[in-house]
Amino acid sequence: MPLAICLKSRPEGEASVDNFEVKQLPDAAPGDGDVLIATRYISVDPYLRGRMNDGESYVAPFALGKPIESGAVGEVISSSHPAFTAGDIVSGHLPWQDRVVAQSNSERLRSLQQIDTDGVSMTAYLGILGMPGQTAWVGLSGIGKPKEGETVFVSAASGAVGSTVGQIARQLGCRVVGAAGSDDKVAYVVEELGFDGAFNYRTETDLDAALTRLCPDGIDINYENVGGPVSDAVFRQLNTHARMIVCGLISRYETGQMASGPPLMPVLVKSIRIQGFIVSNYPELCDEWKRVGASWLRQGKLKYRESIVDGLENAPAALMDVLAGRNFGKHLVRV
Amino acid sequence: MPLAICLKSRPEGEASVDNFEVKQLPDAAPGDGDVLIATRYISVDPYLRGRMNDGESYVAPFALGKPIESGAVGEVISSSHPAFTAGDIVSGHLPWQDRVVAQSNSERLRSLQQIDTDGVSMTAYLGILGMPGQTAWVGLSGIGKPKEGETVFVSAASGAVGSTVGQIARQLGCRVVGAAGSDDKVAYVVEELGFDGAFNYRTETDLDAALTRLCPDGIDINYENVGGPVSDAVFRQLNTHARMIVCGLISRYETGQMASGPPLMPVLVKSIRIQGFIVSNYPELCDEWKRVGASWLRQGKLKYRESIVDGLENAPAALMDVLAGRNFGKHLVRV
After folding, report:
1. Count of CA atoms in the C-beta half-sphere (13 A) of B307
2. Per-residue pLDDT reduced to its tens digit, B4-24
């Protein structure tokens, strides 16, 4: 009988592991055209927090009593669908279960893709080549349109999205500066990933001074993952024609959802563009990244770090870690 | 001796006519390659308020003791420049003086263009075909990129920019709703200009209800000229993929310059784009509008209204009128 992590209750204020429950689901026998998958890794991403709430958003809320869903990779156990065979390694959008049936003609089945693990770890398809990496590419390249020599700032710089944003920006000839939540993370993005500078936003007492020091020519692109005081300080350093790419606002997911944004007068005077985006609206750019990213990865031009938690039952705690910034790199659960 | 309106002092808080002084300038004899112009009309625009302040902006501040400058039309009195002849009607960027020398090789001379007054009033080149009309076209067409059937909202709807924005949007097949500062202005934009709806922002007590009533399908483009409570209410009605074009923030020119802006969470969730722009950065689109606008004007597809104040010495009071919304249509001073 498959084990599942389900949404037990919606958070009032901060989310906690008590909002989840482990359930034993009845065995579902795969029917004609169905694919049975053993889940190997599930992806734990900040945006899942939004789906725990009810109410309008860009993705439907999780249903109470039903499994959480996210990106995942798994192995095909059996298949009567012509496109899949037992032994295939697939990525897709799967429920938090150890075994899953993808029914013929379902959204779930349509989300499945065989992945090429030749020289690339299967977990890369949840991180740097998966949704977080695609998000970095779509936002920076497609929305931000960086020019060589420009300065790019990225918050949550050591995270799955931020670390990819920084490395893409470097590949495109930009200066890259980031903020991260520990000295280790700061050292990692500068020494391992080649950022031109970074600071620890938890201990930095003068954000404006840090930014002026690290971004002497101002900031042309702010790739925003977090919101809050760092974002406000970055806004003050934006140059004429700067772009603020609103990818995430993790600091506001729990509270302060309607906190007001940056002042409009500089938007007017400096011709600033502020733009939100949803990665799933840019399928061509996502495919482009799968090609570009895999090629750069095989050439050793991209690095990534993972923090892997063992055991499906620990997935709720893993999500809490991500929301609190306690992970370091792409956070995954090994099922 | 030419008469000039000069900046006497920079405003502390609200601007007033006391910040200006009338000066008699020494006669400047035109030299070789110079053009002598008799100013006929000067344009009085909200953005001039920003130039009265010191400090960084997209155009240099006016110098203390020197004449204010703005768009103007005039007649060439004498010229030793090959491109101009006595009797030419020209538009350009001129000081607030009754007579002006445009020196050979100066910025001022480069700003001069002969205008075609066949079937079009010379004052149109300060309004619907001039900077305000170009601003409407660049912002709506170039930045907003409206699609047929979308809903466009515009504040300061009866103003020189807003009235053109609304009429362009109608020509492009959009639904157009606006806010204006008097019942007369509301009636004008609906009955004369063909807006689909409008309300008086000074007397409307429930902005959200008014917008829901007038924009039943939400708002796809907010062409922002004003800022403040109407802007905040419009932001709440924005649809997914909406664009907020920040053209002006007249409600914040005097005070509240750093008032915070709309919340970022809806920007993220609805993939909203907020973008400021400066019309002078889009010369090709400006030229496009001169052609498109003149053609529409001659075909009777565009209407405009002017409020004309007589006498150069009344220009400061005319600017105060514009900033307080006491004008109705494009505000001009006849010299």
Report:
1. 17
2. 999 999 998 899 999 999 999
